[in-house]
Amino acid sequence: MDVMVNPTPELKGDIQALSSKNYTTRYLLVAALAEGTSTVYYPARSEDSDAMRRCIRDLGATVEEDGEKIVITGFGRSPKDVKELNVGNAGAVLRFLMSVAALCPEVTFVNVYPDSLGKRPHDDLIDALRQIGVEVDHNGGKLPITIRGGQPRGGKIRVSGNVSSQFLSSLLFLTPLLPEDSEIEVLHDLKSKVVVGQTLEVLEQAGIVIHASDDLMHYRIPGNQSYRAKTYVVQGDYPGSAAVLAAAAVTHSDVTIRRLEEKSKQGERAVVDVLRMMEVPLTHADGIVNVKGNGKLKAGDFDGDAFTDGVLAMVAAAVFAEGTSRFYNVENLRYKECDRITDYLAELRKAGAHVEERQSEIIVHGRPEGVEGGVEIDAHYDHRVIMALTVVGLRAKAPIRIRDAHHVAKSYPIYFDHLKALGAKVEWIED
Predict the structure, then answer these.
(1) Is 309 a residue of the active site?
(2) Of the listed 237, 305, 309, 382, which one is catalytic?
(3) Distance set, CA 273 to CA 161, 206, 289, 303 (Å)
(4) What is the DSSP string of 362-409?
(5) Which listed site, 13, 76, 264, 321, has its alpha carbon 20 to 30 Å from 288?
(6) Is the confidence at residue 150, as pLDDT, over 80?
């Protein structure tokens, strides 16, 4: 389905942040890897978390949903012998489970989104898994991928962090279960270090010991560990909230979002600081962010690697800032559901934004007077692109139609419901 975004000068209201997709998928996985019963409170409802639920069930976990919690009885280090797994369009779920699948005799991850996840590369993780005795058949590093494991062994592992931190996180979930100790060295650079911090936080909560260097480039992992069955509480989601905060920043607003912890390890909490640097009037205290937007923003330079999943929303805000903004260190955006630099900027230009790209930079020449709009633009099957383009549509002079906007459900199924509750003039349109 498409969505029509009509110009909306004012937003007002009070909403609860969605639960974190990143924490939900990690808690579901560590609960499945435990022997015993764990409870996850306030899990995210999204296509990604649904994919993880479905796959851990297929691997032998018992998953029972009860209101605001999920109760999981795990399979420990002995997943069920399953032939196929369908992760949908969830890249993180695929990568985390590629390592877990090494505990099974043979598992094929099927390719059901050939134009999105099916295009994404996984070579670096495949190379690392081969170092611990796992055979992998693949299509040029892409789906479909067959993992032949059963008896992976610990030892020294080298993995590139250039493309994604998810490859490292995947190995960190598996290696504590192996009989031998392991040592992981990250090659080149490590993208999205803050997300690795979330993985380490969840592993520690699950009773796993990992010795990480201060720069997160070297790890010592004792073998023969066991995940403990625990109770987990999922915090509010900054990446999804980034788009709502951006929408409030570019309009005349009085918008409150609750459940956004100030000391969260989500890197995207930095979007609050980015908006402050853009001189957006806001407060952040006691887990509550309040934005009193006046539609005026100042340009700035921002290191996007600190808030990867919030970059597109902040770029959308910068479209209306006074001056030229630069988002640097963002090359890993090219390897997401779509090329979030080239593809996204092409749609922004259609809407009337003045933007440029470099290999690892997005440059935005702000237009405080607004953009023309009045066009139909392509979402590229990408939830972050959809949310960010919606922000631009609110400040356009004429409506913008976003094609395939239903893909927002990957991380934020009620995004448009929340925007409507704040007064945004958005409406679904049948294809």
Answers:
(1) yes
(2) 309
(3) 26, 31, 11, 12
(4) EEEE--TT-EEE--EEE-TT-HHHHHHHHHHHHTEEE-EEEETGGGGG
(5) 321
(6) yes
